[in-house]
Automatic annotation (TrEMBL):
Keyword tRNA processing listed: no
Domain of life: Eukaryota
Protein name per Swiss-Prot or TrEMBL: Calcium-dependent protein kinase 17-like protein
Record-linked InterPro entries: EF-hand-dom_pair, EF_Hand_1_Ca_BS, EF_hand_dom
Domain EF-hand: 55-90, 104-127, 128-163
GO MF terms held by the record: calcium ion binding; kinase activity
């Protein structure tokens, strides 16, 4: 069997098995929006992924297993790329075309595990659901104060302590108060705005968007800026 056939063989088998289940259009759209989301949203979605009910997970599980053709329980980014290229060769369409696949890999280990996968392809209505947002907010609010502190935000962002500070800086600028990031507490409404904002922190810092762009070095934000310049 040639290398290419070896690649395609289990893939084709799985395609038959999961006919019409592989990467539905709405999932591809969801992933595209995910790729544009800022890191804070991705990190929260990652936490939220553990809260989905089993029927919601079942649908996603089929897609994941269709991609995890060797049954390792994880998908390498290289493998996902191969599979999508095979899909494109067969159907003429790459559902994730134009998306940087490293967006899936939150911890940067080169592999996409189940939770990272769920975070990326979770339906937007799950993300936008007030109840789900409240639930994940309560989980993040370790001391049950009803607000999120720098320490609590740092927990979900892992080692990106500087980024946690930047998130609270945006909250601070929007409020226009003198509180420092060490003492400022993010409310649920601010959290919701941040989670529902598109691609940058503009809804958190509407008044000073230019400054936000300058101070935040998100690649997504820079893309936004470039897009504006090209108009
Ligand atoms: Ca990973
Ligand atoms: Ca708290």
């Amino acid at each position: 069997m040639s290398g290419r056939k070896a690649l395609l063989h289990p893939w084709v088998t799985n395609r038959a098995k999961y006919a019409d289940k592989f990467v539905p259009k709405e999932v591809a759209e969801s992933v595209k929006r995910y790729a544009q989301a800022h890191r804070f949203q991705k990190a929260v979605r990652h936490s939220m992924a553990t809260n989905l009910t089993s029927s919601e997970l079942h649908k996603l599980r089929n897609i994941f297993e269709g991609l995890d053709t060797e049954g390792h329980g994880t998908i390498t980014i290289a493998r996902l790329k191969e599979v999508l290229e095979a899909e494109a060769a067969e159907t003429g369409q790459n559902p994730f075309g134009g998306i940087d696949l490293s967006n899936f890999d939150i911890d940067g280990d080169g592999e996409i595990d189940w939770q990272e996968f769920v975070a990326a392809i979770m339906d937007d209505h799950e993300l936008h659901n007030e109840e789900n947002l409240a639930k994940v907010f309560r989980q993040l609010d370790v001391d049950s104060s009803g607000t999120l502190s720098l320490t609590e935000i740092s927990t979900i962002l892992g080692n990106e302590h500087q980024f946690s500070r930047q998130v609270l800086e945006a909250v601070k600028r929007n409020r226009g108060t003198g509180d420092g990031v060490e003492t400022i507490q993010m409310t649920f409404d601010e959290f919701k705005n941040l989670m529902l904002s598109k691609g940058d922190l503009s809804s958190v810092s509407k008044k000073r968007r230019r400054d936000t762009i300058k101070n935040f070095s998100f690649s997504e934000v820079q893309t936004d800026e470039n897009a504006e310049q090209n108009v």
